[in-house]
Amino acid sequence: MAIKKDLSIKYLGVNCENPFFLSSSPVGSNYEMVAKSFEEGWGGVFYKTIGIFVADECSPRFDQTNKEGLPWVGFKNMEQISDKPTEVNFENMFKLKRDYPDKVMVASIMGSCDEEWRQLAKMCDQAGVDLIEGNFSCPQMTSHAMGSDVGTNTDLVRDYCKSVTETTKIPFIAKMTPNITSMEVPARAALAGGAAGVSCINTIKSITNIDFENLTAMPVVNGKSSISGYSGAAVKPIALRFVAQLMQDEIVGKTELSGIGGIETWRDAVEFLLLGCRNLQVTTAIMQYGYRIVEDMISGVSHFMDERGYNKLEDFIGLALPNVIPAEDLNRDFKIYPDFNHDTCIGCGRCYVSCYDAAHQAIDWDQEKRRPVLNDKCVGCHLCLNVCPVQGCITPGEIKWKEGRKPIEIKLKKQYD
Amino acid sequence: MSKIVKSDFNSEAVAGFTHRTAMEEAARCLLCIDAPCSQGCPAGTDPGKFIRSIRFRNVKGAAETIRENNILGGTCARVCPYDRLCEEFCSRCGIDKPIQIGKLQRYAIEQEEAFNMQTLKAPAEKKAGKVACVGAGPASLACASELAKAGYNVTIFEREAEAGGVLTYGIVPTRLPKKVVDHDIKMVKDLGVAFEFNKEVKEADLADFDAVFVGVGLWGAKIPDIKGKDLNNVYAAVDFLKQARTLEDKFIPGENVIVVGGGDVAVDCAVSAKLAGAKNVRIVYRRTIEEAPANMTEFEYALSLGIGITTEMAPAELIGTDKVEFAMFDGRDGVSGAKFKADAVVFAIGQGPEAVDGFAAVATDDKGSVKVSDKFETNNEKVFAAGDIVNGGKTVVEAVAEGKAAAASIMAYLEKKGVK
What's the domain range around A350? Predict the structure, then answer.
């Protein structure tokens, strides 16, 4: 029997069968799409952002970055908020909630002034959604009164949060833009405006590629292009950074966070949970692979919990957070030399090349045997371990304490995939 | 029931890479220091360099690296025994399987053609020296292009109507399409090398040249001296393949074809017969598959077409009235034996040299191969020789390597003689 674990979690007071939600984007644009995603196992949806403004879209509107033949390292999207009439979207949400009462319906909204935010909040109330997310972060809006231009203005964030939370009792989530230095500032402003929590990150302003045919960015729209949001696997490290900083903030960290940014696999999901997220949102991986990816997220997280003896998500949520510390607090008293397994080594010399050209010339190359030999210049940076193409060939070896530093028991990483 | 590949005579058996699949394969490359693959090529091709170029999206640079080193880059990408050369040295073998170097080379050369690249250029200022190359096969083409790149005037004499030698007349198009050979040969022509076709060259024709290169290959048919060898429809491989390539869809090999031999040429004959419509094709080899010189991938391809392989059986007698009807074989163990129905019997048991004394007075060994020094000099100071006529029949890439080395010797000779 396939393993099944209880992945249910309470998020902002709402029972969720699992933490895996569609994020507000093209993947949750109408009734049929969301219904299909629910059937395939997603716990809820942040329905594609609704405004009074109805988007007029360009074509084409997507691009992707790749590396060495690997597509979709990152993804660029120029689509704005929903291009359907506001009433149609609210009707869809109403019907979805009626037909799938156990799934969680989050309305994502975006106004361009106080009045619009209030009007949208009222409509959410009438549609009976479980939660509301305020989109303060879409970087490709055709109006500066909306999107990430609002999200970087703390006064507007606070005021619009207030407009919503004064209108409805439904818990309100403010979606943050990463196009800012300190996300804690608008996050605190959102909470001050009455938001119950925040979600992050929305997409990063980007130019993915320059087209040599038309001498513009991609995608090419009549010979021109625009800066717009970047997402996918490439942005996960940036998303995790913002998540950690928000969760370590003494005010924001007390609230419940929804994590977004490059989640494709159960491992990505667990990483966001380990930093303290209680809800996870996905779009780019669905655009590439479809809703079915949730099956392996559910199964993979279940196996992870089984392996470690966890019975519920709360058993491990936030466990990694205290271990992400300021650079000045790291122990710098030792270095760990790499250990080279000459039996599994295939003699490609990549460790030698990288160590010489980019590190400390600490590897000598035995030309005859085609094997690396460590010399006394090694600083323990582990660049060699990172470039070695053979699994388990270069591993952490001897620990060397710096002159005059006191040896203590230290924690090591032993397994590298 | 096994699934059999159906193919036609002129379409290439293996599909090439697209940009994406080439990038995927190049990404598997470990980019070794002092790349072992680059030490595995007899012709000195540097796969480590051209694969790195592909990986860093410089496919034109990759094509240059290949073409500058090997005038037959497109051909070698198809017919090289990679598994015994560069790919055998590939470090990736230590992880899973080697990089498909031949297929990446093919991709780069296909891009060269797609971009209509003019990679090689002869110098504007010509040298006075005139060199004749006899035969338009791999060794001559390699020798001639090296000389032309250095500014010498080169003329290739070929007795057939087209250039390429064994490439044009002796390899099945499913393995080496004609357009690939033609593209490589175009590179030689673009260097300004002159060709004289349908020319059975005589010593007097070569009198005006400062040096002569002999690259005539091996075209002497070998048929064992057994009863019935003079019956109709008994072929030597060279004649059978030449007919197949020149007659193309008008070539009718007969219903039951027996190919005797165990090398790539035997497989080419069997594949040609099968693709030309023969119903039952059988390769019969006197030794085991393990001892056979053919590439395993070639045997596998023959098998995939439904060609049978019978081992440890040597031809004993051919039976028929005017034309051959049956072929008798004796088993290696002295006990077994076989009688096969045969509308045609092809002997692919190696080719021998033909006499060269009609155009070059040079010493030969007892087999008729031209004797040369390690610099490919014959006993006649203005005559040089390389390729199959010297080495007794090896690979295309070795003929290219020898042709290049002979060109270097010819240039040194001309320098010494003061022919600038």
Answer: 331-401
- Is A348–B34 a contact, with Cβ atoms under 8 angstroms apart? no
A348 touches chain B (CB under 8 A): yes
Six token digits for residue A342: 């000459």
Nearest CA in chain B to A389: B30
- Taking an 8 Å cut-off on Cβ atoms, the answer to whether B24 and A69 are in contact is yes
Q: Could you say which residues from 20 to 39 on chain B have a Cβ atom under 8 Å away from some Cβ of chain A? A: 20-27, 30-34, 36
Q: Quick one: A308 and A375 in the same domain?
A: no
Q: How many domains does chain A have?
A: 2
| Cβ neighbours of A57 (radius 10 Å) | 11
The verdict on B418 touching A (C-beta cutoff 8 Å) is: no
Note whether B41 and B26 are within 8 A (CB): no
C-alpha B96/C-alpha A166 separation (Å) is: 63
* Residues of chain B contacting residue A342, judged by C-beta atoms under 8 Å apart: none
The CATH number of residue A221's host domain is: 3.20.20.70
Find the CB nearest A348 among B23, B55, B91: B91
Q: Domain check: are A286 and A338 in the same one?
A: no
Residue among B78, B142, B84 nearest B105 (CA):
B78
Q: What is the mean pLDDT of residues B81-101?
A: 92
Give the pLDDT of residue B296.
86
Does the pLDDT of residue A330 top 70, yes or no? yes
- What are the angstrom distances between the C-alpha of A102 and each of A8, A16, A296, A313? 11, 8, 21, 19
- Tell me whether A346 touches chain B (CB under 8 Å): yes
Minimal-distance CA residue of chain A relative to B56: A68
Mind telling me the catalytic residues of A?
Answer: 138
| Integer Cα distance of B133 and B146 in angstroms | 12
B237 residue type, one letter: A
* A354 and A282 inside one domain: no
The mean pLDDT of A348-357, rounded to a whole number, is: 97
**d(Cα A263, Cα A365) in Å, to the nearest integer?**
40
pTM over the 0.90 mark: no
Residues of B in contact with A369 (CB under 8 A): none
Query: Same structural domain for residues A358 and A246?
Result: no
Q: Does A365 touch chain B (CB under 8 A)?
A: yes
A75-108 confidence digits (pLDDT tens): 999 999 999 999 999 999 999 999 999 999 999 9
Tokens 């035969």 locate to B135
Classify residue A348 by burial, with Cβ atoms within 10 Å: 0-12, 13-18, 19+: buried
Share above pLDDT 90 across residues of chain B, in percent, rounded to a whole number? 82
Q: Are residues A230 and A348 in the same domain?
A: no
Average pLDDT value for residue range B234-243: 92
Confidence of residue A1 (pLDDT cuts 50, 70, 90): low
A70 neighbourhood in chain B, CB within 8 Å: 27
Chain A: give the shortest CA distance to residue B196, in Å: 45
Q: What pLDDT band is residue B329 in, cutting at 50, 70 and 90?
A: very high
Whether A352 and chain B come into contact, CB under 8 Å, resolves to: yes
Mean pLDDT of A145-161: 94
Asked if the Cβ–Cβ distance from B26 to A347 is below 8 Å, we say no
> What pLDDT is attached to residue B244?
87
Interface predicted TM-score of the whole assembly (ipTM), two decimals: 0.80
Residue A378's domain is classified under what CATH number?
A: 3.30.70.20
- List, in order of start, the domains of chain B with CATH numbers: 19-114 (1.10.1060.10), 130-219+352-417 (3.50.50.60), 234-347 (3.50.50.60)
